[in-house]
Amino acid sequence: MKFIGRQHELSIIRQKLASNRAESMLVYGRRRVGKSELIKEALKEVDVPVIHYVCRKSSFSQNMAGLSQAAAKAFDEPFIKFESIDQLLKYVYGKATRQKIILFIDEYPFLRGDNEAIDSEFQIAIDEWQHETCLKLILCGSYVETMQKLVDSRAPLFGRFTEIMKLKPFDYYDAAKFFPNRTDEEKLLLYSVFGGVPFYLMQLDDNLSPVENIQKLLIPEGAMLENEIRLQLTAELSKEENANYVLEKIASGVGRYSEIARDFSGSSGKLSHTLGKLEGMGLIEKDSPLNASSNKRQHRYVICDNLLDFYYTFLFRETTARSAMSPAVFFESKVEGKLNISYLPRKFEQAAMEYLLRQNRAGKIDPPFYAIGRYVYNDKAKRQNGEFDIVTQDDKGLISYECKYRKEPLGMKVVHEEEWQAKELGLDFYGFGFFARSGFADDVDAKTYRLVSLQDMYS
To answer: What is the DSSP letter of 80?
Structure first.
């Protein structure tokens, strides 16, 4: 399969590899996000010795033996067993005084373990040799917490990396490159369920419909991607049941800390630890309103991985039904209704925000906005709270975007309702935009409003 996406990141790594100076790169991100494949793709263009070793979840001595073998192979020399990182680095850096060399250590946390002294060995070697060699050092890993510790201001390797790259899952647009022949609605459905992790997207079968892929990869008890979810959680979490509790709560719409804590069986410390772990892994994030970022009561946790969101929304508590029903019957009776009524509209909002961010970063929004998010309000007259889907803030003020995931085109009735509500609440939006699944009626003026259809989002 050809390499998809990550062109910006690929260009950066290739530039670092092509330079005539020593470079130290840190590439990290959650499991299956495509770190190793990105680096391997960049290495295809090099014609220099490459020491590539994937660390195992085994002893330090076993990993050192593997690194030693990789070094011998790269230089086509007799095997020398290095007992320490210090010995290996002196050998490799010494070689790099005469030629350009690449040292790519994948899954570095398995080599390091809890021994920070190993970080110090790399730091000492970088400081000693960086001006005398052309070694390209790449440390890569999936244990996000460990990798982030390497760049902490108190860590030995702080300030030593010439490039730090944290890979995230693809957004709605790049994810669709894995299935370019699908319709726009199919692309959104697949992204809403499977998210943007490359490995998950590679499991999709082009010969099956989106629903058939869901029935095959997720619904059967013990399905392949269900096992991937469990592996993702157990890799960095000691208490999977705590993570299950938190994720199920958030998927059901319970996002505030106080609400999540209400039925939690452990201590507040354990809950905070679990939330922090999940947030560090990139599985959940704290969502703050654009106009109330300092108000902790308005903060809520959301699942930022669509596969997890779908799983805990529809499947986690349905083990008995999943084992008793066929995948097709289960989907029809337990998934289909809620999927179309509430889940996909929510994911359409997510994709709309991702679209605006892409356009803004590409310089296609004038004036460019510097903040984006939901916008909360308190209607004192009606004694009710509410929020606007997406609001952007730029130098001129605020623009509100409403998202409608409906089969019929969006007409002026919806536009007038949005304008009237903002006026009644005394909100000073200087512009209005609309995202519509099925486009817009003829009476909606594209010169007055910012209009984006699902087709526009994928064009």
So the answer is: -
For residues 314 and 306, give the distance between their C-alpha atoms in angstroms, rounded to a whole number. 12
What is the reported pLDDT for 1?
A: 67
What does DSSP say about strands 284-287 and 50-54: parallel, antiparallel, or unpaired? unpaired
| SS3 category, 114 | coil
In angstroms, the CA 80 to CA 382 distance is 78
Architecture of domain 349-458: 3-Layer(aba) Sandwich (3.40)
Question: If pLDDT is split at 50, 70 and 90, which confidence band does 266 have?
Answer: confident
Task: For 180, list phi and psi in degrees, rounded to 5.
Answer: -65, -20
Protein fold of 172-346: Arc Repressor Mutant, subunit A (1.10.10)
196-212: burial string, b at 16+ Cβ within 10 Å, e else: bbbebbeebeeeeebbe
Average pLDDT over residues 154-162: 95
pTM, two decimal places: 0.93
Provide the CATH topology of domain 7-166.
Answer: Rossmann fold (3.40.50)
Tens of pLDDT, residues 357-413: 999 999 999 999 999 999 998 877 677 788 999 999 999 999 999 999 999 999 999
- Class of residue 390 by CB neighbours under 10 A (exposed 0-12, middle 13-18, buried 19+): buried
- Sign of the Cα pseudo-torsion (325, 331, 337, 341, in order): positive
